[in-house]
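[Discussion] Sanity-checking designs against the backbone

I'm trying to build intuition for which residues belong where. Below is a structure token string of 354 positions. I'd appreciate it if someone posts a full sequence so I can compare it with mine line by line.
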């Protein structure tokens, strides 16, 4: 009987050990199966299209060549208020353009202007901007830098060839308004690539921006540094909300484009440098019809009333005057009367000397 009990116990132990081994093998197989699935997914992921390293989603296989044409629309018809006619007349500085990725910013609305942007927006100097771009180029966040000559009039064209690389598919540019305190037009981080394709043509209307480093209100304002420095903001027909502002047009919902840029892809070898002369309108660019902005007359406040003149017994007449601050243009509201008279009380009149 003791022998039978020992044999039964031994058989139960063997059965438990076998079940345990089978359970362990089952768990091991399940774990290996899950690991295999993960490895297969990873292989499929890396076997697919390569992910762009610049964070912009551009997977184009080759570079692209573009012709960039900048056009100024700064005319006395579109912007009649305080339009600069001399010393100096309305004109545009040289254009500076940079191709880059998301790790670089030439300028950005709502951000503080860098020393390079300040120097360019106030004085038209590109040294600091180009220096910053060259430093970023060492980190491969900037591709190429381009410049064009300035335009000696408010209306004109300048152009250059731009080579875009898949690693740096964003384009930023700036052009200073001359004369102005710290005003410029520009484009910030325009993406010329969609997936694995380069865009064929892009046109952008440009509006004026304030660099936030000078507090002048008019085109010819003297240098008056802003302290503390403010962020870059867009200038509109209502902001800055001050009658002295050269862009203050309360009748307009928005300012007409003061400039524009057109970027057209060239189908050919990007290594061939295609040069266009400044101020010559390419055949592919159609001249824009300039808008006409009405400018209302602006007059000063009335002066104080003068002394009454005339016989004191019957009352006298007093006068006050005002003067024209801004003459109307483009069918704007004409100027009102500049002189006014009214009767005054006898006690305040003054007899004329005989």
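Best answer:
Here's mine. Compare freely.
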């Amino acid at each position: 009987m003791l022998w039978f009990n020992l044999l039964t116990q031994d058989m139960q132990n063997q059965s438990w050990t076998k079940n345990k081994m089978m359970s362990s093998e089952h768990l091991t197989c399940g774990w290996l199966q899950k690991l295999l699935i993960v490895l297969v997914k990873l292989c499929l992921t890396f076997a697919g299209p390569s992910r762009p390293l610049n964070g912009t989603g551009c997977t184009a296989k080759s570079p692209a060549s573009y012709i960039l044409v900048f056009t100024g629309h700064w005319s006395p018809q579109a912007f009649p208020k305080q339009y600069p006619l001399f010393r100096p007349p309305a004109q545009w500085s040289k254009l500076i353009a940079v191709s880059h990725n998301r790790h670089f910013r030439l300028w950005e609305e709502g951000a503080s202007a860098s020393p390079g942007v300040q120097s360019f927006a106030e004085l038209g100097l590109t040294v600091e901007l180009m220096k910053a771009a060259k430093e970023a180029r060492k980190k491969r966040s900037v591709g190429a830098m381009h410049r064009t000559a300035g335009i000696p009039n408010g209306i004109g064209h300048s152009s250059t060839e731009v080579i875009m690389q898949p690693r740096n598919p964003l384009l930023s540019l700036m052009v200073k308004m001359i004369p102005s305190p710290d005003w410029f037009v520009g484009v910030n981080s325009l993406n010329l690539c969609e997936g694995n394709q380069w865009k064929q043509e892009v046109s952008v209307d440009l509006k004026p921006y304030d660099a936030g480093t000078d507090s002048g209100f008019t085109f010819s304002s003297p240098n008056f540094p802003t302290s503390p420095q403010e962020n870059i903001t867009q200038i509109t027909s209502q902001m800055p909300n001050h009658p002295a502002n050269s862009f203050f047009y309360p009748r307009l919902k928005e300012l007409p484009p003061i400039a524009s840029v057109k970027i057209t892809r060239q189908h050919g070898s990007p290594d061939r440098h295609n040069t266009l002369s400044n101020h010559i309108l390419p055949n592919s660019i159609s001249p824009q019809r300039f808008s006409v902005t009405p400018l209302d007359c602006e007059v000063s406040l009335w002066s104080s009333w003068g002394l009454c003149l005339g016989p004191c017994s019957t009352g006298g007449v007093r006068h006050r005057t005002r003067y024209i601050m801004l003459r109307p243009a483009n069918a704007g509201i004409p100027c009102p009367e500049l002189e006014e008279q009214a009767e005054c009380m006898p006690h305040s009149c003054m007899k004329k000397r005989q």
